[in-house]
Amino acid sequence: xxxxxxxxxxxxxxxxxxxxxxxxxxxxxxxxxxxxxxxxxxxxxxxxxxxxxxxxxxxxxxxxxxxxxxxxxxxxxxxxxxxxxxxxxxxxxxxxxxxxxxxxxxxxxxxxxxxxxxxxxxxxxxxxxxxxxxxxxxxxxxxxxxxxxxxxxxxxxxxxxxxxxxxxxxxxxxxxxxxxxxxxxxxxxxxxxxxxxxxxxxxxxxxxxxxxxxxxxxxxxxxxxxxxxxxxxxxxxxxxxxxxxxxxxxxxxxxxxxxxxxxxxxxxxxxxxxxxxxxxxxxxxxxxxxxxxxxxxxxxxxxxxxxxxxxxxxxxxxxxxxxxxxxxxxxxxxxxxxxxxxxxxxxxxxxxxxxxxxxxxxxxxxxxxxxxxxxxxxxxxxxxxxxxxxxxxxxxxxxxxxxxxxxxxxxxxxxxxxxxxxxxxxxxxxxxxxxxxxxxxxxxxxxxxx
Length: 450
Prior knowledge:
alpha/beta; 9-stranded mixed beta sheet
């Protein structure tokens, strides 16, 4: 949708105020902005967003404010894709500026209310109007069916138990096994008790109709606070773990571990003073480095591996939004969310209230977190598939190539969906889901290496 411009303001030192001068005394200070055609307006908005981000990153809030003012004359949450994208990115940049004055930021957001039922409904809309989660669920179920062939006691852990549709389908598949269904136990992790209660009712009712021995174990917890021992994995159970769009939230630095490592680094450096100055090779091989960043995901993956799962399926956003540089995050996320907004517009009309809710309450919140937050507050740390492959490999997991039948099922599901721009491609035994040629989500399967 966008094209990189060699004259981008990212590399230019010319302030936006000189690029787009104000014309006072004419009603709107920038009347000519309204006369831009759609394509010109889109390019102008990209330029303004990148310029604004540059000024925000450098602390030049006066020029950032001018850019935000100009964006406000072009952007609209009800306009075309670029206008809508610009609305949410400009809001995120404004929030980042406000956070430099904590008192103002807290006062502006003091009456903000988040309604849990509304958030649940929006995530349900995301499931209904996009094919991507459905494809992830179909692949996950097929991987579990294949891994659990012949098993009599199966335990499935769902680290984001918000949608019962996936497990209703698994119950039906297991009931059709030639050797008969296993005893199935599903442990659902979710921070809202009401969601788990509803899932339990639905799945227990389905299991009774299908005459499948079934238990549902609810755990009310955020993933970052989850005590893995509460998963209560029992001897003799074949364990499967499903993580759909969850692991990235654990990529924030673990402050306690980082602090501990920094203290140890200081001790190491003090001890070095009593020794001969180390050579370059000796220094580079030091046991600790200030560049090393520990994250919660390391300990969490180690804890999951200790449970010896027979298979683990991981679905994640396939984009790099975890850079330390604001400019890099903004540039990458602009492309990613433009593709998602385009995809949604191909499914729902621009006037749709459902479309507006998904974009504002789901994508808009993610954009805000990526752009305005830092440290432990920044949870939307999406990374590319190759990064997850490296991380899971280091944690002792080996990739399980997805079967031909899993790929076939996902392609059949996509063919029956009215979303012409959606694509699926196989990549080293994993699946990458795209809008046109833009990767959006990945699904991969893993087992413990011996």
